[in-house]
Amino acid sequence: MHIQYSSCLFALLLAACSRNETVGPELSQPVETMTSTEYAVLFAVIDSLYAPTTVTQIVVQDSTTPEIYEYNLDSVLTTTLGYVRQTIPSLGVEAAGDFKTKNLVSSIVRDSASLHPKSRLLNTTIAWHILRGDSGWSWNAFSLMYPGAHGFLTVGRVGIGKNGSQALAYVGSHPGSRSGAGFYFVLSFENGKWKVVGRALASVS
């Protein structure tokens, strides 16, 4: 039964990849989409993480998600952002506040090419099944569909300072079973480009 279910998942993912689409039902209904500036910031972060490597595919979950799944998300984000500001003193209140406001709800990640030329989108529901280790949803099937990928990433909406020169981004990395880490990145807009100037570890599993 387990083998049959995994084969069905493999076939479903294969069909989606052949059309360059994500698959499966939505876990929730995201209500916002990211701006071009947010994609540019995330591109800078992802490129800084993967530029020196030989990764051939960068897989990203197709909706944004807070770094901690809690019902009292407002309080969690307030506490977490307080820690980030202590760790990266240059982070301004405007960028942090904009990040919190945007990440109280889930948002759609539509444009994989703007995230990175190597990026592909992974359906949120499938990502959750894989992370929870649900029967039939294995990392082996994931690896077959995304050869050369080191797991997948989750991202948050990007907080932007009022003058547009500072940004706060979140990227979570899920490289395999029982492993993962999340980081906050502070970026500065210099000479027409976004540059990572600070990083804070948010979570490790």
Descriptive overview:
The chain is 38% helix and 26% strand. The protein is α/β, with parallel strands linked by helices. Strands 2, 4, 5, 6, 7, 8 and 9 form a seven-stranded mixed beta sheet that branches. Strands 1-3 form a two-stranded parallel sheet. A hairpin with a 2-residue loop joins strand 8 (179-190) and strand 9. Helix 1 (2-18) packs parallel to helix 7. The protein is globular, with a radius of gyration of 17 Å. 36% of the residues are buried.
Helix content: 25-40%
**N- to C-terminal separation?**
30 Å
Mean pLDDT: 81
Q: What is the strand content?
A: 25-35%
What string gives the helices and strands in order? HEHEHHEHEHHEEEEE
Name the poorly predicted regions.
1-28
Structural class: alpha/beta
Shape: globular
Query: How would a textbook summarize the main sheet?
Result: 7 strands, mixed
Work out the helix count.
7
Rg from alpha-carbon coordinates: 17 Å
Number of strands: 9
Can you lay out the helices and strands and say which pair or pack?
Elements: H1 2-18, E1 32-33, H2 36-50, E2 58-61, H3 73-87, H4 93-102, E3 107-108, H5 112-115, E4 119-122, H6 124-132, H7 139-145, E5 152-155, E6 159-160, E7 166-176, E8 179-190, E9 193-204
Parallel strand pairs: 1-3, 2-4, 2-5
Antiparallel strand pairs: 5-7, 6-7, 7-8, 8-9
Short description:
Helix content is 38%, strand content 26%.
Jot down its keywords.
205 residues; alpha/beta; 7 helices; globular; disordered N terminus
